[in-house]
Amino acid sequence: MRNDYRKAYLETTHSLADVLENLNKTGFKISLVVDKDETLLGIITDWDVRTALLKGVSLLTGVSGLMNSKPVVGRDTMTATELRDVMTKHKNEALPVVDENNRVTNLVLLRDYVPRDNHKCPIVIMAGGAGKRLWPLTLTTPKPLLPINERPILGHILNHIEAQGFEDIWVMTHYKSEMIENFLTADAPKSLNINVIREENPMGTGGSLKFLHNQALDRPIFVMNGDILTRINFHDMLEWHHANNNVLTLGSRHFQYQVPYGVLNTEGQRLVQLEEKPVQHFNINAGIYLIDPMALQYIPDNRYFDMTDLIEVLLSSGQQVGTFPISEAWIDIGQPEDYARVNQDSEQYISVGV
Question: What are the Cα distances from residue 58, in Å, to 61, 65, 93, 202?
Answer without folding.
Answer: 5, 12, 26, 49
